[in-house]
Write a structure and sequence with these properties.
This protein is α/β, with parallel strands linked by helices. The chain has 2 domains: about 5-115 and about 350-365, 2-Layer Sandwich (Enolase-like, domain 1), CATH 3.30.390.10; about 120-350, TIM Barrel (Alpha-Beta Barrel), CATH 3.20.20.120. It has helices at about 60-75, 85, 95-115, 120-125, 140-155, 170-180, 200-205, 220-230, 245-250, 265, 270-280, 295-305, 320, 355-360; strands at about 5-20, 25-40, 40-45, 130, 135, 160-165, 185-190, 210-215, 235, 260, 285-290, 330, 340, 350, 360-365. The strands form 4 sheets. It has a 7-stranded parallel sheet. It has a 4-stranded antiparallel sheet with strand order 3-2-1-15, sandwiched between helices. Strands 4-13 form a two-stranded antiparallel ribbon. The two termini are about 15 Å apart. It binds 2-succinylbenzoate (OSB) and magnesium ion. Magnesium ion binds near residues 213, 214, 238, 260 and 289. Magnesium ion (MG) binds near residues 188 and 213.
Length: about 375
């Protein structure tokens, strides 16, 4: 496959409602859409670096720089036999995994299309439908949260994840459990706590949570092991896991018992698959996290979640949960049984709506 052209689109998508977490308030989501053209075909990917360096150190400008000045020059105008061969050209670049993952995703789509296979099939997925959940931001008050939970359950979502932050944590869990004693429920702290807060998490042990996501430092593995040993509930790491090596370290220290795999955070589908395969070999369940993607990134996440080890529902919600309109056609919808269909057409399996892409693009460049 010869890579003829690459185009970057800096997009800004306005959220249907503010997304509040321990990291702050998000009103819109800025990402980079990557378009790769080769041999008459077009591949699409999404880099989930955000407008702010609050979840990860990467931002749209850092990813734009690393893509433009290092990653794209490595592949442009060259021919490759596989995605693996193409992304090797970026191996010298340390970190900047969201930048790498955006380009890699577009290459996966392009190569899958060149073989007329769906991305799911090309990645080694087997499931036709994937179980999905929903991630609910911090609300103004508990009645508002309960109303949101009720609404999403009515739409079919198989599990509820709520964001927590110091001062708004255990009370939320108690309130939901009072109303819904047996739904699948989990919490995400986005690194807002320290070991001094251990009692809060010990108290959560009474509420039958599926997992507690990233309670401690965003790069920490060691202190999570000190917390996990006092809990019955599984800790799930998100921010701290960037590679299969991090995953091994976390299991050896018993820092977590579940992993949230986000392709952007780990540098793409190739590393995601390695983590998935390792977790499967260790009987550790994984699930696909989300970064408020547009339909382009969502399509990749759905395909990844069709791999056999993704047994827990992903943060993969319907397009309309996030945005008034999506930039793919058809947009993603949830089935009443809380699953999402895995696209079966070649590549990501959905068409990019070029008009809508134009509407959300604030800057673009063609190489
Ligand atoms: O921690 O999982 C997270 C969104 C942006 C950044 C970090 C996270 C999230 C979510 C939303 O929880 C997941 C989604 O529905 O896309
Ligand atoms: Mg998280």
């Amino acid at each position: 496959m010869k890579i003829d052209h690459i185009e970057l689109f800096h997009v800004k998508l306005v959220l249907v409602s503010p997304f509040v977490t321990s990291m702050g308030v998000e009103l819109d989501e800025e990402h980079i859409i990557v378009k790769v053209e080769g041999e008459g075909l077009t591949g699409w990917g999404e880099s989930v670096a955000e407008g702010t360096p609050f979840y990860s150190y990467e931002t749209v400008p850092t990813a734009w720089h690393v893509l433009s000045d290092f990653l794209i020059p490595g592949v442009l105008g060259k021919s490759f036999a596989s995605v693996g061969e193409a992304i090797q050209t970026g191996d010298k670049v340390r970190g900047h995994r969201m930048a790498k993952a955006g380009l890699e995703a577009a290459l996966w789509d392009l190569f899958a299309k060149s073989e007329n296979r769906s991305l799911s099939d090309y990645l080694g997925g087997s499931r036709k439908k994937v179980p999905v959940g929903v991630s609910i931001g911090i609300q103004d008050d508990i009645p508002t949260l309960l109303k949101k939970v009720t609404g999403y359950l009515a739409e079919g979502y198989q599990r509820i994840k709520i964001k927590i932050a110091p001062g708004t944590d255990l009370d939320l869990v108690k309130a939901i459990r009072k109303e819904y004693p047996s739904i699948s429920l989990q919490v995400d702290a986005n690194s807002a706590y320290t070991l001094a807060d251990s009692d809060i998490f010990k108290a959560m042990d009474e509420y039958n949570l599926i997992l507690i996501e990233q309670p401690l430092g965003y790069d920490d593995i060691y202190f999570h092991s000190k917390l996990q040993r006092h809990l019955k509930t599984a800790i799930c790491l998100d921010e701290s896991i960037h590679s299969v090596a991090d995953t091994q370290a976390a299991f050896e220290l018993d820092s977590c018992r579940i992993i949230n795999i986000k392709p952007g955070r780990v540098g793409g589908f190739t590393e995601s698959k390695r983590i998935h395969d390792y977790c499967l070999s260790q009987n550790v369940p994984v699930w696909c996290g989300g970064m408020l993607e547009s339909g382009i990134g969502r399509a990749g996440n759905v395909a990844l979640a069709s791999l056999p080890g993704f047994t827990l529902p992903g943060d993969i919600s319907a397009s309309k949960k996030y945005y008034a309109f999506d930039i793919v056609d058809p947009e993603f919808v949830i089935n009443q049984d809380g699953t999402m269909d895995v696209p079966t057409k070649p590549g990501i399996g959905v068409e990019v709506d070029l008009k809508n892409l134009e509407r959300v693009t604030v800057r673009k460049v063609r190489f």
